[in-house]
Design goal:
alpha+beta
Length: 299
């Protein structure tokens, strides 16, 4: 299990989207599903027995897809940078993602790449396709715009201070006369827990920013870990966004601080036990492992 996994909020298309993505990439797998029980259905308004979440993997990157309703929509503030080794591969991905999608940057040659394009697919999720080899084929890409413009480097420094095995490997800045604000991040590569991320600032008039449609799950083994990441990442963030392990940090990026035992308890074969765990979780902001276990073991 990776330390951090992107969590994708769909309206009612999680299963379709997951099948689509895993069909496009090699080394991909769907890892089952979790369905809404009575407690989850009552809290979300979703039909009981329908699919709630679908964990999946593409090219070594772990994801979770959620059927959460129409509350949040994907924006290009978080996209996924895909490194393609061959023209045939990148051309096929671009053609497939383009069907029903929206082009954000034309698919062509740029000063920084022989072949690159940025688009939103038919589900609204954003992808950056680039011809070139990297050890990690797919990397989450954070775009700091609007009120968050100019804070990419500050955010990266905070994040790498919190996670073990983390570092900033490259920062390229806008120079005088370039399209971005001089000195801000033009492109950066950093790693958290050994997983590669990318970031940049943009001072263009974007009508979007970070939201809950894409969050990052932090998998925690102990309550001490849960407490640590909750305290550090929620500092200065939006307190109204804190519920069921979710939080928003001071840059507007959403995280879920999740003990690894939680999915196990929620997927227990005894529906009475799993529903008790769900009910207990829905009453929490920060997840408390002992309370979950008491709910599970209740007689």
């Amino acid at each position: 299990m990776k330390k951090i996994a992107p969590f994708l909020w769909f309206d009612n298309q999680a299963e379709e989207a997951v099948r689509f993505y895993t069909s496009l990439f090699k080394n991909s797998a769907i890892k089952g599903d979790v369905r809404y029980d009575d407690e989850g259905a009552n809290a979300s308004g979703r039909p009981k027995g329908t699919v709630m979440t679908v964990p999946f993997q593409i090219e070594g990157q772990e994801f979770v897809a959620l059927n959460g309703g129409p509350i949040f929509k994907f924006t290009p503030a978080v996209s996924f940078f895909v490194s393609c080794e061959a023209h045939e591969e990148i051309d096929k991905l671009w053609d497939t993602f383009s069907e029903g999608g929206k082009v954000l940057m034309e698919f062509q040659q740029y000063p920084f790449s022989e072949k690159f394009g940025w688009l939103q697919d038919k589900f609204g999720l954003s992808w950056q396709l680039n011809l070139g080899r990297r050890a990690q084929k797919i990397a989450p890409f954070l775009l700091f715009v609007g009120k968050q413009h100019g804070k990419a480097e500050e955010a990266m420094k905070l994040y790498i201070s919190l996670f073990k095995n983390s570092s900033i490997s490259r920062v390229e800045r806008y120079g005088a006369g370039e399209s971005g604000a001089e000195g801000t991040v033009k492109h950066a590569v950093f790693s958290l827990g050994g997983q590669e991320f990318m970031a940049m600032d943009s001072n263009l008039d974007h009508h979007f920013t970070f939201n809950e449609a894409i969050s990052f799950v932090v998998n925690c083994e102990t309550q001490k870990e849960v407490d640590y990441y909750w305290e550090k990442l929620s500092a200065g963030g939006d307190e109204k966004a804190q519920q069921c392990g979710w939080l928003k940090d001071k840059y507007g990026v959403s995280w879920q601080i999740v003990p690894t035992i939680l999915p196990e308890l929620l997927q227990d074969k005894n529906p009475v036990k799993s529903q008790r765990v769900m009910k207990a979780m829905l009453q929490m902001k920060k997840i408390d492992i002992d309370s979950l276990q008491r709910a599970y073991e209740q007689r």
